[in-house]
Amino acid sequence: MPHSESVTRYLGSKTDQIAQAPKADRSGNDVVLNTARTYEGASAGTVDAQRGHISPQVGTNCTNYHWEDLDYSWAYTRMGSLNSAGDTAQVQHIYGTSSDIWVDTAFTLSDGSWGLSAATHSGEGIGSEFGVSALSNFHWGIYVPMDYVESYFYADCYEGHVYQNHAEVRQIGYHDGRNLTYSIVVSQPARDKSHSEWALQSGPGTTYSRIISSFKKYSAAVVMFGASLGSSSGASSYSKQSWRFGTGQTWHYLYGAGISYKTAPIIYASNS
Amino acid sequence: MTEPRAHKPPACRLAALLVLAMAGGCQPPSHSTYFPQDSSAAQSISAASGLKVYAGIANLDIAPGDVVLFQSIETSTPGVRGLVGRLRETNAAIGMARESDLTDSDLAPYHDLGGTFSAGDGAIGILIEFTMPTGQVDITTPVLVFSVNGGPAQREPMLMNLRACPASIDECPGPEPPALRD
């Protein structure tokens, strides 16, 4: 299974909606709803004609509140950065069998206005590793391709199949067939030499790899289905970063900013 | 320095002594959890036979009020020497390096295991030293043995895998880091 989902969806405050939502954990606001179903005819890249009657929030004697997945697409989503200094033979950021990512979920209560609610989690089931390889003096943001779905909230009412003015966009797993990529040059702070415990120095002809479960959460945006997930993006964990240093007679420093290289959410690199 | 805290044996151990010694239903933990390990790492190095190799296996913070005695390093590789030092007296924690890459001042802060340290010493670096044989060396999760406040010895496998190869580093892929603890 490439995707493990734990979604807390916003439902609003209508009494009958709350009453019918299974497994409510907070009255009137976020509820866990496990009855999402794919709308018949929905497919990637299409806009269904049924959206034509989504505007008014009307309906009487409504039953069977449910989410319908209407559209699918994918986008690269920021999940890390990778830094190397001079005399580096190879540096890799691996997103693979033990990696994962959290991405915020966007929701709207009416057309055009999006907010953020909860997050979805993916990654444990990916069966192969994906990596970005680079050489010396590499300072780039790393992106992972993720699938997204746009869902709408409906009810079966006396008037028919009625949109309830709630929609959401969420990620549903790693997008197969695409590798990691990198974009945006990132800057890095200079090593604070007054805190030697924050840095690691490796000699020529060595390698260093680290796995950590508290990777940085980035605030870069993902725009999907017209929803600008302003403060969204992902916080990946269990990602592995590896450096293979060259044989030049220089020290290779990896360091955190204000924190030990052991636990730093980003490892920076320098030769001094 | 504050008074060391008394060592408190785990309740699970007491229960095992009183009730469950035969049943095996309440086992003490198989390893210490005194030093949190939120990441794991792996390192490798290319070194010719006969060269001394140094590898950092831990960068540790001691809880305020505690006094820790670092006793020994256990590995499956014979001839490994454990060293301990205050990282604030260094330029940076040593990852992996040959003796020829290091100067006397790089190693001066490190001493044989056996001394006691407290939070006031700042971050503590643990190094191992071994002499490169003719073949490849793999050291998997070396076990740090230590005691806290005069208590019993605790054994903690450090989440670090090491490899040293006589070949060039291009022909000596680094080992995988150990799995993180749940």
Outline the secondary-structure elements:
The complex is a heterodimer of chains A (272) and B (182).
Chain A: E1 3-4, E2 9-10, H1 15-20, E3 30-31, E4 37-38, E5 63-83, E6 88-95, E7 101-110, E8 113-122, E9 130-134, E10 139-157, E11 160-174, E12 181-185, E13 199-202, E14 206-212, E15 222-224, E16 227-229, E17 239-245, E18 252-255, E19 268-270
Parallel strand pairs in A: 4-5
Antiparallel strand pairs in A: 1-8, 2-3, 5-10, 6-9, 6-17, 7-8, 7-11, 10-11, 10-12, 13-18, 14-17, 15-16, 18-19
Chain B: H1 11-20, E1 39-46, E2 52-60, E3 67-74, E4 81-86, E5 93-94, E6 96-98, H2 104-107, E7 110-112, E8 116-118, E9 124-131, E10 137-140, E11 143-148, E12 154-157, E13 160-165
Which descriptors would you attach to this protein?
heterodimer, A: 272 residues, mainly beta, eight-stranded mixed beta sheet, four-stranded antiparallel beta sheet, 2% helix, 49% strand, elongated, B: 182 residues, five-stranded antiparallel beta sheet, 13 strands, 8% helix, globular, disordered N terminus
Characterize the structure shown.
Chain A is mainly beta and about 270 residues long. Chain A is built from 1 helix and 19 strands. In chain A, the strands form 5 sheets. In chain A, strands 1, 4, 5, 7, 8, 10, 11 and 12 form an 8-stranded mixed beta sheet that branches. Chain A has a 4-stranded antiparallel beta sheet with strand order 9-6-17-14, with no helix packed on it. In chain A, strands 13-18-19 form a 3-stranded antiparallel beta sheet, with no helix packed on it. In chain A, strand 10 and strand 11 (about 160-175) form a beta hairpin. Chain A is elongated and about 80 Å long. Mean pLDDT of chain A is about 70; it is low at about 1-10 and about 20-55. With about 180 residues, chain B is mostly beta strands. Helix content of chain B is about 10%, strand content about 40%. Chain B has helices at about 10-20, 105, and strands spanning about 40-45, 50-60, 65-75, 80-85, 95, 95-100, 110, 115-120, 125-130, 135-140, 145-150, 155, 160-165. Chain B is globular, with a radius of gyration of 18 Å. Mean pLDDT of chain B is about 85; it is low at about 1-25. Classes of the chains: A mainly beta (about 270), B mainly beta (about 180). Chains A and B meet through strand 13, strand 14, strand 17 and strand 18 of A and strand 1, strand 5 and strand 6 of B. Strand 13 (about 200) of chain A pairs parallel with strand 5 (about 95) of chain B, so a sheet runs across the interface.
